[in-house]
Amino acid sequence: MQLELLMVPHLLLGLLLLPLSPSASAAVTHLPGFHGPLPLYLETGYVDVEEKTGTKLFYYFVESERSPGTVPVLLWLTGGPRCSGFSGFAFEVGPVNFVLAPYDGHLPQLVYNPHSWSKMASIIFLDSPVGSGFSYARDPKGYDVGDMSSSLQVVTFLNKWFDEHPRYRSNAFYIGGSSYAGKIIPLIAQYISEGIEQRKQPVINLKGYLVGNPITGSRYTDSNSRIPYAHGFGIIPGQLYEAAIENCKGDYINPLNNICAGILNTIEKLLSEVDHDHILDDKCVRTAPNPVNAAAERNRFLSEEHIQQNVPSPHPTINCFSYRYYLANIWANENVTRDALRIKQGTIGEWVRCITGLPYTGDLPSSIPYHLNLSTRGYRVLVFSGDHDPGVPFLGTYEWIRSLNFSIVDDWRAWHVDGQSGGFTVAYANNITFATVKGGGHTAIRHQPKQCFAMAQRWLDNEPL
């Protein structure tokens, strides 16, 4: 696959002239827009993951605020593919949030996130695959990656990172992420597990992984539950749902006949009236400059790239969650920010939260066999889903977990935060737990940070939800 250079000019500022330098990291004590010194240890840096193309992955490392020598180390990946790890740092489990205020021409402000998962773990936020965030390659051919190759680069990153941070080798290690990251995390875990069996050094102390609103790669698995979900939430009426059942014979992905195709088209029009990340949210500007074609619209929930494209466009209003992405684009493109983060000059032009226009091959057909293999091997697994996500509904996620045919060890029940239900959960043999997050969308953490913090803390502490 050839790289279309004209589609990504911000990646081409002097890349071919950059020398291949060793991995480097630096402590960051202050962030522009954050009042005073950071109340925790933050490190940023690059790690070489492919010498031939000069591919370097950029990371943010936040040391835990609670006993960093003993608490887990968590690699947090963002979906997309090719959405920056900064999404996790500022919008999900990381230590800062943007102050929601109308942009007045000054640098957007940051505040401490009271629900930061750094209270329970040390976290690596990674710009992966290459081309995400501040990660780059000297050779444009380096940007031609896919599920398999980018996952191997993550493993290379981890091996080198632990080499450079040996004090964390004995800590329990977990991988986490949501959406498209949920597809490749089991693959990365599988590669690490194989490395452990082959006694490769350094041995990564992998204990398990957690995935939120995860995509599996199988369109049928990820998508088919959207129809019964839409019916359950009153988006489509009973007679239309019954017609879909009768004419589509349970397959809402590949229409069996013209009647089924017409029904699915009507359903898609009705679904387009609600936000595809959270069924109760206002429909908002996604800062996408071009109309989404019909085929892409049908599969929009398989990618997060619709949220932020390469070219700026009218920004969302402040009531929209995506307004935070607008502020992030401004913040990350200020020279003072790049200086603080120690970004190498000449590597990245305009920073965007999620980048399109680079080749990417989705060559992992389904992650479900990896979930089965890893849980059978004894690795701990937490799968959680926002119950207000119409794009990757919890119904479908629950069904593929059930298809693993593990026996139930803790039957379906509510789990609680402050005396109220945070959602519902069921635990299976082989240490796999499924949980819904009440009121959560795609992704659940963005909408329900307090509940997700409690859920993750209990799970990481090996306690029942």
Give a written overview of the molecule.
- By secondary structure, the protein is an alpha/beta fold.
- It has 3 domains: 5-212 and 309-361, 3-Layer(aba) Sandwich (Rossmann fold), CATH 3.40.50; 220-307, no CATH class; 376-460, Rossmann fold, CATH 3.40.50.11320.
- 29% of the residues lie in helices and 19% in strands.
- A hairpin with a 2-residue loop joins strand 14 and strand 15 (420-428).
- Helix 2 (147-164) packs across helix 3.
- The longest helix has 18 residues, at 147-164.
List the helices and strands and how they pair.
Layout: E1 24-28, E2 42-50, E3 55-62, E4 73-77, H1 86-92, E5 96-98, E6 110-112, E7 122-126, E8 136-137, E9 145-146, H2 147-164, E10 173-178, H3 181-197, E11 206-212, H4 219-223, H5 226-232, H6 238-248, H7 258-271, H8 294-298, H9 323-332, H10 335-341, E12 360-361, H11 368-376, E13 380-386, H12 394-402, E14 408-417, E15 420-428, E16 432-437, H13 444-447, H14 449-460
Q: Approximately what portion of the residues adopt beta-strand conformation?
A: 15-25%
Helix content: 25-40%
Averaging pLDDT over every residue, what do you get? 88
The best one-word shape is globular
**How many domains would you count in the coordinates?**
3
Kindly report the CATH topology of the largest domain: Rossmann fold
Order of helices and strands: EEEEHEEEEEHEHEHHHHHHHEHEHEEEHH
End-to-end distance: 45 Å
- CATH evolutionary superfamily of the largest domain: Alpha/Beta hydrolase fold, catalytic domain
Number of helices: 14
Give the low-pLDDT segments: 1-22, 287-313
Query: Helix- and strand-based class?
Result: alpha/beta
- Radius of gyration using CA atoms only: 21 Å
What is the number of strand segments? 16
Query: How would you name the oligomeric state of the polypeptide chains in this document?
Result: single chain
What's the architecture of the largest domain in CATH terms?
3-Layer(aba) Sandwich
